[in-house]
Amino acid sequence: MGDRAGVGDMPELGKGGNTALGTGPVTVELFAEGDAVDLSALLVTAEGRVGSDDDLVFYNQPGAESDAVRHRPADAEGPERIEVDPAALSADVDRVVLVASCDPDDAARTFREVKNAQVRAVQAGAEAVVFRLPPLTDGERAVLLSELYRRGETWKLRAIGQGYADGLAGLATDFGIDVAEAEPEPEAEPEGEAGAGETPEQRTPTVPGAAPVPPAPVSPAPPRPPVSPPPPTPPGLLKPPLGKVSLDKGSQVSLSLDKADRALVVTVSLEWDGGSDRRRKAGADLDLYALFVPAAKALRGPDVPGTVVRKGHVPQGEPLRPGAEPPAVDAPEKAKRKRRKDNGQDAVYYKRLGSLTDRPHIRLDGDSRVPGREVVRIARPDEQGYVLLCAYSAVSNGAGSFHSFGAKVVVDDGRGSTVTVPLYDDTSTRYWVAIALVDFTSADGAAIHHIEAYSARMTERRPVLHADGTIEMNKGPVEFKRR
Question: What whole-number distance in Å separates Cα of residue 460 and Cα of residue 431?
Fold first, then answer.
């Protein structure tokens, strides 16, 4: 907590803005008027989650990573603050997220009563940078203030300003913190002090405002049977057009296409209306990405195309084209270097518009920065393997869900079939959604799968489309639209 004394004219970041940091430790200070708020920090991995419960730093757990991140209460030296030494953080820490929260013991407290809230980043030898939070009047009890994040060998600071209605405990849960555990029935204790034999590993940090919640049981998904391609449809015997079809969640439909038709172009559009006048005025800028695996590299694997797989998935299966060599499986470090080198090469988006006449025979018409429509055209279906349609939402759009923006994908084969792939979940504070997979490995056309898979909270890593048509979230490169 703190007042605004001493916060004069200095460089400011707007919501979503970022700036490079110099070397050395950084102190992030919180200033506010009105109701008291608390400052805390989350140490987050590239997957958008904490590595352990020790990665929440606040007044009840004031240090992490051997005090590379440290909470300091308001005192004679300054307001409540978080001190971060980026050079001392382990390689697993991708970002340090700064959070402000209201009194956890009074559910009536919200940021409506907090005035002139702002954070100031101070670094020796550099001018301080300030971010003033926008008014929060929708019942928010916690807010993501800003974050320090890695960009190659350097660190940057970004303004966020996204609110949560469920306070610090709910926010921490979203990042993977176990805020409480279900306690077993009490047993008779031996004589002596209660809990005397408890080890540090058995203790969970007490997040203010948390209520005991039993962990949900997790059942492993059953293995999927191998996929056998349907028999080909002879030329000239295409199935009738589908007309207009809208997919249910998790469903799929098949288009009958003549893959030998060089004039055939499948049109895919991302359409959105912004959802509200307020969001439309702010821009509601979504971006369409077409991630692709060409037929020459595609595999027929044991998993159904469009399956969302876990971290570390290794593509496997038979090459789609007889005689083609299956892709080599690189060691983890080599694969990571290769992904950095090939950043963007397997995607068509606003920086790589692609081509219809040359490979990949996929082209984006252009970038719309206001609600409307972005269009990708796909030619030469005989050259295509899998195409995954994704949408990206910049932090400047706020915390609204893709669904609340009215986002959907529409696929048109140009011969009477129009397939709409809607979004159904009100999942907010996510930067990526994988919406639909177009599977061109089907012998007589293409299958369109409804996917709707979201990235982890607060990670901007792009999804990855594997050679076997499976999808891995939170795995690809990070590339902010405005750096």
Answer: 6
Contact 288, 376 (CB under 8 A): yes
List, in sequence order, the alpha helices (H) in 104-197. Answer: 167-174
Question: In whole angstroms, what is the distance from residue 168 CA to residue 143 CA?
Answer: 8
- 104: phi > 0 → left, psi -120 to 50 → alpha, else beta; which? alpha
Asked if pLDDT for residue 314 goes beyond 70, the answer is yes
| d(C-alpha 60, C-alpha 41), whole Å | 12
DSSP output for 252-291: EEEEE--TT-TT-EEEEEEEE--SSHHHHHH---EEEEEE
In this structure, how many other beta carbons lie within 10 angstroms of the beta carbon of residue 262?
Answer: 11
End-to-end CA distance of the chain: 30
pLDDT attached to residue 224: 43
> Over the range 369-397, which residues count as b (16 or more CB within 10 Å of their CB) and which as e?
eebeebbbbbbbbebbbbbbbbbbbbbbb
Q: What is the pLDDT of residues 81-90, one digit of tens each?
A: 999 999 999 9
What single-letter DSSP state applies at residue 92?
Answer: T
Q: Per-residue pLDDT tens for 252-300?
A: 999 989 888 888 999 999 999 887 777 677 667 889 999 999 999 999 9
C-alpha distances in Å from residue 333, one per residue of 26, 53, 329, 340, 470: 30, 27, 11, 11, 21
Cβ-contact 390, 376 below 8 angstroms: no
Q: Is 60 exceeded by the pLDDT of residue 94?
A: yes
- The one-letter amino acid at 27: T
Confidence tier at 449 by pLDDT (50, 70, 90): very high
Residue 179 has pLDDT above 90, yes or no: no
Tokens of 126: 């550099």
Which long-range contacts does 326-331 make (Cβ < 8 Å, 24+ apart)?
A: 326/299, 327/297, 327/299, 327/467
